[in-house]
Amino acid sequence: MRISSPLARLSVVLFLSFCGLIFLSSYVISIKVLRERIRNSGADLLVATEYVRGDKALPERGDCIISQRPEDYDFYYMRESFASARHNQQFLTMVEYPAVMTALLPTATQQNGLYLLPPRADDSYRGPAEVDIEEHRTTAQCLTDTDVPLLRKLYPGGALFLPTGSLPFIWQNGYINKYVLQIKQATVERVEVWEHMLKQLSRLDKTHMNILSSTPLLRELKQLESIQYRFRVCVTIGISIIICLLLTSVSSLEFRQSQYVYALIGSFGISRILLYLSYIGENIVLVAMGFTGALAGLWGVRHYITETLYKSPGISLTLWELEDDIRTFLLAFGICVIVSSVPILCAILRPIGKVLK
């Protein structure tokens, strides 16, 4: 046998598989980038607001409206006043936070418990700032987006946070109860379950609760992932078909030489089935080496793919995320090995006398 035959089969599988994996990795990266942007915009948040008039105060339910389940979600309760504070001639929402929310706030020597989230993000300053509340001036500790990313999502225009019971007079004209669920491993199914639960709770309590969630956005993301998955399967099968055709073409070019060699070997009494299985084994080894080399090459250039090729430095790429594509490749390669050996099978099954005459 010429060395060009196994080398050609190895090169075909290695090169086309490597190019296909790089192409498929772009879809994995694009979905991860989109999912990260959705998550950063608050896709894991479910926010319910409840308006309470000053002459019709609701029973104080606080953070007991639903039970705490840290393994599934983080639950926060806040109360917004219709009164406003002022900082640098800008009006800010006044928000009362319970004691359980102090874990969100940075530890500091702030005596009055006031925290200021500036209207504009500023990570360079964490010191005290002056604020005006009902013509009274006091100081509050500045918060940064790095310290409290959740609060910036809830109050993009800034807010003044004060501990429970510190200013009882600001609730006389009414207030807004805000219930926030930060769902872990947020999927459209999990978000819909808790959204339905809050709606049922509002109906049973006969209150009007406005619920804001990212369910439509998560549903669109799920549909996009489903469409992309089908497309990736088609691409994988298409590449496998091309590899199958090329491997079959290589074995077809060996047909004349192979039928003479196999007939000559068979004339010495060696089993034809054994000869066929030896060719199948050779193809399996070459295809496995080629695909393993493609996977090793992808692993070696994964940082170049994310940081330079697709301009996504904050995104990581692992072979586990291409698990479905790799599984499809392996299944298709199994079929390719059998199909590409058909010409050799024809050479083996030809009568010895007709070949050697």
Written description of the protein model:
Helices cover 50% and strands 19% of the residues. It has helices at residues 4-40, 149-154, 188-205, 215-253, 255-266, 272-300, 302-309, 323-340, 342-349, 352-356; strands at 45-53, 73-87, 90-97, 115-117, 128-133, 136-142, 159-163, 174-183, 209-212. The protein has a nine-stranded mixed sheet, with helices on one face. The longest helix has 39 residues, at 215-253. It contains ten helices and nine strands. It is elongated and about 105 Å long. It is α+β, with helices and mostly antiparallel strands and 357 residues long. A hairpin with a 2-residue loop joins strand 2 (73-87) and strand 3 (90-97).
Order of strands across the widest beta sheet?
A: 5-6-4-7-3-2-8-1-9
Overall geometry comes to elongated
Helix content: 40-55%
Compute the CA-based radius of gyration. Answer: 33 Å
Which structural class do you get from the secondary structure elements? alpha+beta
Counting H and I runs of at least 4 residues, what is the number of helices? 10
- Helix-strand string: HEEEEEEHEEHEHHHHHHH
Which stretches are low in confidence, meaning pLDDT under 50 for 5 or more residues running? none
